Amino acid sequence: MKICTLASGSSGNSLFVETEKTKILVDAGISHRQLTARLKKLGVQMSDINAVLITHEHTDHAAALPSIKAPVYVSSSTVSIWKDRVEDLKEFEPGRSFSLNGALVTPFPVPHDALDPVGFTIETDHTKLGVVTDIGSVTALVKERLKGSNALILEFNYDEGMLLYSSYPWELKQRIKSRLGHLSNEDASGLLNDLIHEGLRHVLLAHLSEVNNTPVRALDSASSVLLRNGIEHVRLMVAKRRALGDVVIV
């Protein structure tokens, strides 16, 4: 399985996943032009994409949908938002797995202030990828679905101290910190701690706030988890905000 972030953060999110038989985008929150240009650097054309999986309807995850020709998979609760705007619309039920050319996709509910937000796992015969990028709190279901992942895309949105003293209005700070908001470095590290196992190899820290976090703080938080557990086999990376990330092979 090949994994590469195309964008990550409040300015836009998209993840490219390639298995032996299929090419998938998870979210398409940047322009069609940007998607095309960044995929081209990977040797991939937009016409090569077999499916686009959407976590939720917020613009930074779905901006390019009206321009996309590939099948777009959305939660059944959000179909009404897209039915007159997306050319090839498919729907899924959170909690019910489906197959994409041999890749098993499992959408599962996550706490976030959207209509029906989900995370995804994507599995092949020997590899499991877990993706949660907008999540306000960690539930038992989230842990259960992500368990056993060989690669993880985890939200490390904000540093608690930076958010507290930032210029954001108090109401916005409360939204970010709420159960339906975003995940702090501390809470994301707690989730990572619960998901460590011998088969975990790569962790991409995603959706970092441009104002309330830094790559160094996020990495320090995640690294401390690995250090406490004596883990040396897991590679940590920060997803780039407005550029192609590193290619990960799992």
Which key terms come to mind for this protein?
250 residues, alpha/beta, Metallo-beta-lactamase, Chain A, seven-stranded mixed β-sheet, 8 helices, 25% helix, 25% strand
Structure description:
- It is a single chain.
- This protein is of the alpha/beta class and about 250 residues long.
- It has a single domain (about 1-250), classed as 4-Layer Sandwich (Metallo-beta-lactamase, Chain A).
- The protein is about 25% helix and about 25% strand.
- The protein contains eight helices and 14 strands.
- The protein has helices at about 30-40, 60, 80, 140-145, 160-165, 170-175, 185-195, 215-230, and strands at about 1-5, 15-20, 25, 50-55, 70-75, 90, 100, 105-110, 120-125, 130, 150-155, 200-205, 235-240, 250.
- A seven-stranded mixed sheet has the order 6-5-4-3-2-1-14, covered by helices on one side. A seven-stranded mixed sheet has the order 7-8-9-10-11-12-13.
- Helix 2 links the parallel strand 4 (about 50-55) and strand 5 (about 70-75).
- The longest helix has 14 residues, at about 215-230.
- The radius of gyration is 17 Å and the shape is globular.
- The chain starts with a strand and ends with a strand.
- The model has no long low-confidence stretch (mean pLDDT about 95).
